């Protein structure tokens, strides 16, 4: 039997903290990420919440398998370090997280990329269960991905395998991305890029979008549903970009199932059928059809994945 684990999901907007046993969250809390001001400022708050949650469950460190963090960025899982992170939690690569965990709690520590952690949660307990080949695509602030091939979570020699789907080039004449590449999926369709995408629209000042803040995909899908021409055009261009990413992921990793997750999937009733149709029309899969499914645990898969990892390495 696995022990409960402390699982932390470092989102750019919220940090989720839970005590997790298998696929059951015994108790959880979340705080504002305040990621623009770095991770170090947030560690005392995280420590306090973890201890409060443990006390509330009457758990001591001896009862806990360990602590695991799902983090954005490129993660060295061997050295347990954040190697590179894009803007959010900019000071994180300088912090010895394992030492912090040991001093704060006396627990073993592991860390993994957040998309990999979410895929692990879906693979072990959710929509990708019973599949040995699965890919996850997250549509949110950015576009993330992760892959399981032949029953193994892909990490790669330099820890970038599977996770850079958002940086596939789909428009080689496109704009420069945060990563330095040109025409990435993220520069064509992601929440961080959406305001500038909208402002490039030819008659932006005359659109409904111009008079609303913030400009996000909830707004775009709502206005598109009301027949706003600019919103419809932005929505359709975004759908094409995400479908191109999905097809690239399928061609790269040969999955049986593609799981879609992330905040933008609030509009899944529109997104899933579109991507299914595009994949059926354009992906080169002579063996049959890739299943395209919405995540079973859109808000908590990364916590489940980290609890599984903690017990696996513990």
UniProtKB/TrEMBL annotation:
Xref: InterPro entries: ATPase_NBD, ROK
Domain of life from the UniProt record: Bacteria
A Pfam family recorded for this sequence: ROK
Membership in a protein family: Belongs to the ROK (NagC/XylR) family.
Protein name: ROK family protein
